[in-house]
Design a protein that fits this description.
Bound molecules: 3-methylbut-3-enyl trihydrogen diphosphate, magnesium ion
Distance between the termini: 23 Å
Number of domains: 1
Largest sheet: 6 strands, parallel
Radius of gyration: 19 Å
CATH topology: Undecaprenyl pyrophosphate synthetase
Structural class: alpha/beta
CATH superfamily: Decaprenyl diphosphate synthase-like
Order of helices and strands: HEHHEHEHEHHEEH
Oligomer: single chain
Number of helices: 8
Number of strands: 6
Strand content: 5-15%
Strand order of the largest sheet: 3-4-2-1-5-6
């Protein structure tokens, strides 16, 4: 019985989120401009989306551009936006064919009109796909997201539609970008940094965090599998005691 249980392949985590870090260092190590690292990073995104689909992951969230990344030099921001345009134009047909549903979350008021149009088209085209939901966190900051949820709640209270006493965890969750997305089971950060950098602070309350030294442009399916293996070695308790212990 135990043997049979152990040999059964573990279910993949439903939701994996990745902080894709290290593009700049990857480029610097090769004497290349930072943009070269970002370009390579797009290839790693392609590989990882395919790997997530193959591994049976339901939701893959990728941190692509933070609300703080707007503070980078104008040239780097514009290169990153150019790559985003390129990705949206060149990958959508392929993603759609593979059954991937695309969702973008973040402060879209800061994005250029043409990028917003491309996002709308991509989300519309892929809305009914079922193989994998790819959530792209773009111009995203978790504190700003939580502040937005608080503002919405306040507006509903002010309009008389909501009783302050009814504001509980679910009420906050329902007003986040991720309202209809399960919390991440696993958050992976590449490049050796061990912090969340304002990513999914509310949603990560019980996520397993796995930090890997690989720089994002070098990330492969094998790295994703290794992170999932580490996830399976961890014991998730959600505040309770271990099953079987007293
Ligand atoms: C991650 O790589 C990509 C973005 C944040 C857009 P970085 O650009 O942060 O690379 P490092 O951390 O400087 O190596
Ligand atoms: C976090 O990486 C944001 C993304 C991966 C998009 P950063 O490189 O911007 O984070 P810090 O500055 O090291 O915290
Ligand atoms: Mg970085």
């Amino acid at each position: 019985m135990r043997d049979a249980e152990q040999s059964r392949p573990a279910e993949p985590p439903v939701h994996v989120a990745i902080i894709m870090d290290g593009n700049g260092r990857w480029a610097k190590a090769r004497g290349l401009p930072r943009t070269a690292g970002h370009k390579k990073g797009v290839e790693a995104v392609r590989r990882t989306v395919e790997a997530a689909r193959e591994l049976g992951i339901g939701y893959l969230t990728i941190f692509s551009f933070s609300s703080e990344n707007w503070r980078r030099p104008e040239e780097e921001v514009s290169d990153l936006m150019g790559l985003l345009r390129f990705y949206l134009r060149s990958e959508i047909a392929e993603l759609h064919k593979a059954g991937v549903r695309l969702r973008v979350m973040g402060d879209r008021t800061r994005l250029a009109d043409d990028i917003n149009r491309l996002i709308d088209q991509a989300e519309g085209l892929t809305a009914d796909n079922k193989a994998l939901t790819l959530v792209v966190a773009l111009s995203y900051g978790s504190r700003q997201e939580i502040a937005m949820a608080a503002r919405r709640l306040a507006e509903e209270v002010k309009a008389g539609r909501l009783d302050p006493a009814a504001i509980d965890e679910e009420a906050v969750t329902a007003r986040l970008y991720t309202a209809d997305i399960p919390d991440p089971d696993l958050i992976v950060r590449t490049s050796g940094e061990q912090r969340l950098s304002n990513f999914l602070l509310w949603q990560s309350a019980y996520s397993e965090l796995v930090f890997v030294d690989t720089l994002w442009p070098d990330f492969t399916k094998r790295d994703l599998e290794a992170a999932i293996e580490e996830f399976h070695r961890r014991e998730r308790r959600f505040g309770a005691t271990t099953a079987g212990s007293r």
